[in-house]
Amino acid sequence: MAQEMNQQVVFLPEGARRTRGREAQRINILIAKAVANAVKSTLGPKGMDKMIVDDLGDVIISNDGATILSEMSIDHPAGKMMVEIAKTQDSEVGDGTTTVVIIAGGLLEKAEKLLNDEIHPSIIVKGYRLAAAKAKEICNDMAEDISINDRAALREIAITSMTGKSAEGANELAELVMKALTQVAVQNEKTIVIDLDDVKVEKKVGGSIMDSQLIDGIVLDKEVVHSGMPKSVENAKIALVDAAMEIKSPETDTKVQISDPGQLQAFLDQEEMVLRRMVEAVKKAGANVVICQKGIDDIAQHYLAKEGVLAVRRAKKSDMDALAKATGAKVVSRINDLTAADLGKAKLVSEKKISGDNMVFVEGCKNPKSVSLLVRGGSEHVVDEAERAVKDAIGSVAAAIKVGKIVYGGGASEAEVASKLRDYAKTVGGREQLAVEAFAEAMEIVPRTLAETAGMDPIDTIVALRSKHSTKDGKWEGINVYSAKLDNMKKNKVTEPLKVKTQAITSGSEVAEMLLRIDDIIAGSGKSKAPPMPSGGGGMGGGMGDIDM
Q1: Of 1.10.560.10, 1.20.120.1200, 1.10.10.10, 3.40.50.300, which CATH number belongs to 14-144+421-440+498-523?
Q2: Is 64 among the catalytic positions?
């Protein structure tokens, strides 16, 4: 009987690997810290860039946390979870992707010390949840109001978001972002609605970042379909057509029997007549510009050119929707039903050659609710990073307008949260108090990292920062990376939307809590590929093994 009780039960397939208890937690924490360290040096205006080379030799040079992590080949599930929070931060706010990853890494690093002190993971998780809720409450309390009319503040948010990326110093870009978002914002009774798709970002190599421009309308990466058409039309009346201006092929098998050449000619004449009627319908409605989502037959092109109509074919659906919002036109599915009321208006529609490619500009729309931002740069890598910087800035400014609250950066917000959390920890009591204090220390990883990138001593800086935040007037004291000193971030106009901070706290704490609750890692075998399971010093697999941890 005793032998039966001691018999080992094997329920996993041969070759499966299993790691349990403290070792499983250690591995997950090790991986998460490695991912955080991989992007840590990119934080802030003095942050460094990363060069990522894929299997095909394509190169990406970026300072953006979400871009770096998504391009790295990370195989371990814990590492993938860190990548996911960066992507979530990017989609929700657009900025703060590096911050959320290093906060999550910091929380797990502090939790590791608590685990070594024999504090149960569930107690740490409970403390972290209390701390995260309190941290968001502190952020809300110290946030300041902003409205869509505070254009200078919105511009400062865009500048803060782009500082440290390749577009650094390009204040003109920040101005363009601010103008674009205030233009497309739709104000309802109580809320402001902003659809980020209404700001179309087009990039073209050539010129410099300073040559970027905002178009009060839409830029189409298309060209005029016929050489005989005008290349420029003023006071344009635009028809948006979601139908082919060509003869449709029958949907079923059809046979046409022709017995003599006269019948063939009549057949061709009939086809030409159908196309001519389409063009006549366009002209009758008063349109002098046609943008078609589908094809335009050569004969139809000829007649449109004779009528002096500028035409573009095979426009994307997203561009058609944007044009409808910008020009006030209605997208028509039947050309014969086109009327003057369906037409949109623009001061100028013209074809321009940008960096060797023809593009059609629809400009001068009256109160457009969809605009285009044309980003220029000296090389492909520069323009790609400038585009990423612009998209981050668009997300940040939109978040500030929607929520209506701002805080100040430079590590000031995180230092204030840490200071208030320490006071709060004393009221919690029990072992959870240690977890709340650990959360406060983890929040200080942001000013600590900024101090390191500025060449300051991180320990002395954190001590001085804690001293400042213990006073009433020290709320906005942060790291001035340019002077390598503590400074008032509000006076320095380092403005950030509240949502960047609250989303980073939410995502960072949630992933840390989830990883801490895992005490068993089972890696399958056989047909499915098992995730790498580092042992000893650890490694990451999939191209991450060389990261310094």
Answers
A1: 1.10.560.10
A2: yes
